[in-house]
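Q: Could you fold this chain for me?
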Amino acid sequence: MATTPGQGPLTGVRVVELAGIGPGPFAAMLLADLGADVVRVDRPGGTGLAIDTEYDITNRNKRSVIVDLKSPDGPARVLDLAARADILIEGYRPGVAERLGVGPEACHARNPALVYGRMTGWGQDGPLAERAGHDIAYIAVTGTLGMIGDPDEPPAVPANLVGDYAGGALYLVVGVLAALHHARATGAGQVVDAAIVDGTSHLSAMIHGMLAAGGWQDRRGANLLDGGCPYYGTYETADGRYMAVGALEPQFYDEFLRLLGVEDFASARKDFSRWGELRDAVAARFKSRTRDEWTAVFEDSDACVAPVLSLREAPRHPHLAARGTFTDHGGIIQPAPAPRFSATPTAVRTGPAQPGADTADVARDWYVPDLAKHQQPTKGPE
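A: Sure. Below is the predicted structure, expressed as structure tokens.
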């Protein structure tokens, strides 16, 4: 199998990913999408909670080796890789990597310039640092989950996008790239403590400013951006589908009212006493036609109205199709790498790495011959 580097601004950067689930693999995928040579160190038997490896898109553009860290020579093989890497990512609970012999101190003894990225929910310290958890618990304690949903219903769960990926993986990527910049300038590596509770809290910075200024109420469905505003939200259509409205500015609001056919509410934009009446009128109008009919009405306007599409519908949206926002690789429709670069374009170069399939190639390309000597048998999809 050919090596995966060669496309993207991170070409030449070497990353070791100690296999896990959730935000760590997604962060490593993003680095791989940007051109880094990411070697995923899989464990014998897999990680649990995993889908069929053939469909695990978060392992695209990577290569995989299998190392049993609990075997006598397992830690040495990972340290061999760390000695040749620029970045290492792990997502264990605090102290686990150290007990396995691959913690920051052991890695930095072999490679002082290594950026050691640690991905956790609670962080490396604090009263809950040793506790188990998942995305929903992390975003719950930050106040973020409590912001989302109808005021008369339980908070709405935003899949694992806000915590695992936005507050976790993306902050880890920002952190390790910033630390890599520092390491290349000074020769000194460091540890990056990326906690989902920290990143998710950071995402709400603007809201906290609005809260302090009295411009945000600390409850769901009562604010400009959380569904409390009748011209910033979603409405059901005649066919049981939905339209999304974001007509915040005056000129967009006016165009929205005109195309919807409720011009009589022009003065209700800032009149909170009329918001209930406005919401009812907007809801009634949207219920009078199908989603596709309303999409056609607003298609060429600046009313900031869009259809709410399903995951399978999204790739066929004309704008996303024209931009190539989604791509078909190996028969799997998936999001294309993002963002885009004018001089160093990215691409989906390879499909999901299969556990252990690249051991010989990595041993050769990274100059770690002992890795191939202790090669684990490849385990195919179950």
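A (continued): The CA atoms of residues 238 and 290 lie 5 Å apart.
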